[in-house]
Structures are given as C-alpha cells and as structure tokens.
Amino acid sequence: MGVVKVSVSNKDMTDFLQKNYFELFDFPLQFDLSCPTLRVRYRNLQASVHPDQYAGGTAQERRLAVQFSALINQAYLTLKDPLQRGRYLLSLLDDVNEPAHTVQDTALLLEQMSLREEFDEIKKTSPVEVSRLMILIEKIETRQQAVLTDLSACFQHMNETKNTKKASKLLDKYQFFSKLHDEVLELT
Amino acid sequence: MALLQITEPGQSTTPHQHRLSVGIDLGTTHSLVATIRSGIADILPDSDGQCLLPSVVRYSKEAGIEVGDLAKAKAAVDPLNTIASVKRLMGRGLADVSHTANHLPYQFVDADVGMPRINTELGQVSPVEVSAEILKVLRDRAQEALGGELSGVVITVPAYFDDAQRQATRDAARLAGLSVLRLLNEPTAAAVAYGLEKGDEGIHVIYDLGGGTFDVSILQLNKGVFEVLATAGDSALGGDDMDQVIAEWLIEQAGLANKLEHKLLRTLIEQARSAKELLTLRSEVEIKIEYEQISWRGVLTREVFEGLVMALVQRTLLPCRRALKDASITLDEIKAVVMVGGATRVPLVRNTVGTFFECQPLVDLDPDKVVALGAARQADQLVGNNNSAAGLLLLDVTPLSLGIATMGGLVEKIIPRNTPIPVAKAQEFTTFKDGQTAMQLHAVQGERELVDDCRSLAQFVLHGIPAMVAGAAKIKVSFQVDADGLLSVSAEELSSGVQSRVQVKPSYGLTDDEITAMLRDSMAHAADDVASRLLKEQQMDAERLLESVQAALAMDGERLLEAREKELILQAMHNLSDNMTGDDHLHIKKLIATLNEVSTTFAARRMDSSMQAALKGHRVDEIDL
Lengths: 188, 625
Known about the structure:
The structure holds two protein chains of two kinds. Chain A folds into two domains: about 60 residues, DnaJ domain (Helix Hairpins, Orthogonal Bundle); about 80 residues, Monooxygenase (Up-down Bundle). Chain A has eight helices and no strands. In chain A, helix 2 runs antiparallel to helix 3, helix 4 runs antiparallel to helix 8 and helix 5 runs antiparallel to helix 6. The termini of chain A are far apart. Chain B is of the alpha+beta class. In chain B, the strands form seven sheets. In chain B, strands 1, 2, 3, 4, 11 and 12 form a six-stranded mixed sheet that branches. In chain B, strands 18-13-14-15-19 form a five-stranded mixed sheet, sandwiched between helices. Chain B has a four-stranded antiparallel sheet with strand order 21-20-23-24, with no helix packed on it. The longest helix of chain B has about 30 residues.
C-alpha cells in the first residue's frame, strides 16, 4: 500500500493552524461567549475559506481550503456546546490533564438517582404521560441552567483561584444533566 | 491553443470569460439540466421543448442505446432491456436491492461480489453506466443549447445518499466525460432556488419526496448563506413505492397473482402511476387492464388510494422528527416548509406534512424543477461567473454517522451525523495482541451500533507496526469528509510514523481500472483517441492553473511574496506555458505539479490573510445581529 504524506509544513501554514479555537474566532480565553456573535463569525470565516470559494483554484488551494474549512467547523462545534467548550478551555488552562475521577458529591448522586427513578417511572407508563415528562424536562433544564451559571462564575474567577478541579466537577455535573436531557427528549 | 500571456503582477489580467456551466438533477423518474443565462436560472429543454428527460435507458439490438421518451415508450413491450429508476440501484450491492429487485423486471447477473449488473441485448450493464447514458444526453443538450463545451457541472444527489451512492454518481459523471464541480444535496439545491427567488430568510424545512428517495433538511437562510442545521431521510422511499402498492392492489383485485410476468408487471406499474397522478385532482379513476386473455375493469377512489399509501407517507414523518431534534429547533421557529419532488403533489402528502409541521406547506415552485435550478446557481458560482461580493455560501452536513469497526463487531463513531462538512477528525486506537504488527481497519457508515447493521465503506490494513505489548501501540485513524460528502481515511502508528491512506472506494463501486477501460471502450466507438483526450485534459488543467496563479499574483503577489519567492513562481509558470502546447501529457502533468508545489506557500498565506480580513470585518457585521 502506497504511503504518501501530503502535508504542508507548519511554517507555510502560517500561524492559523497553531491558534486555539478561541483565538481562531477572535474571542478572549473565557467561558462566556455570545452565541449570535459566534454564528456570525462562523459564517464570515467560512465565507473566506470554504472549498466552494476555491473551486477554480489550484489543487493546493482546494486542498488547503478543505483543511482550513474543516478546522473552522471543528472549532465552531467545540465553542457552540457549553460542555465541549468548557472541557476545551480547561485543557488550555490546565497543563496537567487530570485522569478520570469518580464523582464523590453525595448530594449530586442522590439527585441523579431521584431524577433517574422519576424518568424510569414515566417510561413505564403507557402511553407515556406527556405532562409528567414535560415537568421532568423543565426540572432538568432548570438544573442545567444553574450549573451553567456556576460554571460561568467558576471560570471567571479562575485566574485567582486556579480551581480547575471545581470546574471539572461542574462539567461532569453538566454532562450528566445534558445526557439525561437527551434521553428524555428521545421519548417524546 | 492560444498561449497564455503572462503579465507582471499589478497589470490587469484579461477580461473575465464567461464559462459554461450547468446544474443537473439526476432523478429517479426523470432528469433535468439547467443553466444561468443573464443572471436568470433556466431549464434547458430538448428540441421538442420538453424539460423533463425520463430517466429510462433501453439497450436493444434494433435501436442501440435509447434514452428518455423513446426508451420509456418501449418499457412495457421490452421490459428486460429497458431500465428505469436506475438511481435506486446506484452504489448498492445485489443483496441490498434483492427485495426491490424482486419487483424489478430486469435480469440481474448473478455476480458473487461487486455491484449488480443487468443483462441486456447489448450485454451486461452496471447502474453507473446506465446513469452515464442519461448524463450524456443532458450534456449534449446543454452543449448544443449553450454552443460550447461545459467547464463544469454540479450534480444533485439525495442528502441521505451514503458514501457509496455518492461515489457511484461521481463515477457516472466521469464516464459521461463531465467535470464535476460539486455533488450538491437536493434539498439544499431546492433551498437555494427557493431562497434566492423569494429573498426569504429564517429557518426553512425542505421536504423532498422524489420518485425513489426521501429527504428532509432544515436550513437557516441568511443573506446568501444557506446553512443546513440537520438532514434526515430514507434513500429507498418515494413515489415509486406508491405505484408499487397500487400495482399490488390491482394484482389482488384482478386476481393476477399467478399470471405475473415482466411485461404485465410493467404495464400495471405504469397504470398505477397514472392513476396516482390523476387522483391528485380527481376523487376517483377508472382502471382497465387488457392483457392477453385478461380483461379487468375497476375503480380506484382517492379514499382507497390514501388508505393504501398512508403507511408510506407516515414513514416520512420519522425522519422529520429526527431532523427537528438534531437541529434542536421547535416547530414555532420554522418560517416555512417547502415541498419538493413530484410525489409531493399527492394531496395526502401535503395534508400530512402540513399537520405535522403545523403550517401550510409552500407549493408555489414547480417541485420537479426547483432542484436543477438551484444546482445551476451553484455551478455558475463555482466556475467563477458570479463575482458579486454577496455570493452564495452553502454549508452542508454529513447525513449519516461515520465510524470504525472495533473488537466484537461494534462501531466506534468518529464523525456523528449532521456534522458540518468539510470535516476532519481523528481517534486513537491500539493493538489487542502482544507483538501485533498489522491492524485491519474497517470504515462504516450508519447509525446502528453493530457493524453488520451499518454500510461497509472500505477495509484496509495498516502494516509495519513495530512489535509491542498489547495496548502499547498508538494508532491514529483520521477521517476526512470533503465538501462533496466523500470520505477518505488514513491511519498512522504514532511512535513509528508508519502511515497508510485510502480514498474510500465503496465495495459496490467501479475500480479506477474499470472506469479507464470503459472510457477507452467508449472512445474506441467514437473513433477518438485516448492519448489525445489525456493531452487535452492536461492542457486544460494547465490553462486553468496558469490563469488562477496569474490572478492570485495580480491580487496579492506584492503583498504576500518576497521577490525571490515570486521569481520561483514566475519561472514555473513560464516553464509550463512554454511547454503546454507539446504533445507529451506526462511532461505537462509534471510541470503542473511543479507549479502547484512552488505556489503552495503563497496559497496558504492568501487563505490566511483572507481569514484575517474576515475577522477584521466582523465588528462591522455584528452590528446588525
């Protein structure tokens, strides 16, 4: 099988591919960002590098356009989702990547169990009791929102506290709620 | 061929030439070709003024290859040699089509592997070749109408087409001698035609029920930007299936179950189709079957018809629901639902969709033409005719998840469905045995967790992994999907740097050798010469490349290049330009590669600079959020 390495040296790629996703979109290195602004910048960046803009270009230009455009897409997806954004930001702030840790927050564990139980009960109803489902969805969304607020505060004070552990825990918490949210929506 | 004049940067280049381009809707039941003339998108009709070319091809000794109405007229009398709805067979293996194939009046060649081939009087033909015949007719129609050779075409495919089906479509275009600028998803094409015509903005749903495929896409329209938020569908569901259930009803009513043969089946399906069409306006139709000794007469009411097809129409709602969820939008955010595809003329479809989305679906554009018109717009833009600053930007997604088979027949998803394309993603895997030096990689597409339930795209082996204990090797598998939705996969062992790369060639596609052989055959018939064709291709490539580097130099040469770098590029340009009239296509190819190489840095800097500019401009744009 032929092995062909087709890549451009980093020097040639200028510094764009070296930038982190926040820099790529010209956002400061922080958790809070405006989603409408993100969308507009996404469109503008794609308008400048999308392969369609280089359809008549040289083979190199077309290949580079695919690479650049894919990078913008990846950055956009990461920044758009609070969970991915938080994890990514954490990886930039915290040099030492912590190994996976177990959740020890008893209050959270109890809450998770009670929500899961509630969900399981609704699942057993036939036909599914939509009104109960809606109440559960609202409950989960309220919790998600609260964790987001905590996350935002936690990241804002990161410079003084350096408390990456706390942020990481909050992200795990957020992940639980958003996973459950997806599962519940699947029932509707 | 005129030699290209190489001017110094800063001087104006030659005035822009209008390039000929078309958009082609290669449909299950019929195909169309459209172009942009004086800024207006137009369907190109045949010499009789017909816009729709039936997607039917007949291979017979008496008449050779016939395409369109001529072939369609013979479908009932010569069913074995007349191939209709070939799109349903594209990129499919025999096993995939066997349930459909039982209904199809063709003789499939019993091949062990590879794509299905159909026996005809003129020999075996593959679905790709049949599609290429349809494309050739449209190509000739366009070149005659526009008076010149086409620079490039955009061909539409159902958004829900998988990699194999897309690749097969590209192969067909190559066989027809067309240069494909882009494969464009049909609902996205429809959105472009619709959005540009109406100047509409906001979130739109495109519900596209064609002859053999169903797509639903949710798009955000914003100042020339068409961003697909999610797409879903069923690549084996369409108006054809309605005809099938009506035909089955006829068989039952008329007691024909044990009299079935190809000719009768084809006649029944034709009658079913026309009954379906008549029932869009009438409440009942009379059906007469006269076939050899059989004579039957009956009435099909709209009520009975709707009862027959209800389940099919309901089946379209599942993808609709999935798309809404993937786009994470609610019904009240939807500005309009646009109906595309001939089967959306059925009143039951319109009512069902209207009820589901809680709004009156829009039916004011011709559902048969809108896809080709949108494709023509993009083709015009891609060949560089539309230079307006507010150009089109189409941001599409992958319809199906892409993954790698892992131990135990499970799929590890690498790129989830509805990810914006182009996209590049990598994941690390490891060895499971001590001293393992090779690893089999199997790329699959689909939503299911088991490999066997997904579509197999490609298998390849990464050799030369240094022997290590199990789990120590780090194998990085990278997936890249380009703007056509086509996948390429590469794998690398990180500690040793051993690499392997494949352009995914579906198991049911044609190999490069097969295509070359077919091209050679077709040229032998046309008394053409392969070498001259290759030479011409290289010369056209050379010309295009010179033009584009020239334009880039004129625009950014001073700003982004040092004198020495510019000198290198100019030298390579002169070299190519001086030699491109020669008759050695390999030499020209080499010079093209050289010019490409020396201008790579320049290309990267230009792209970088254009991104910087896009970001600088954002503060202005963001004011009117």
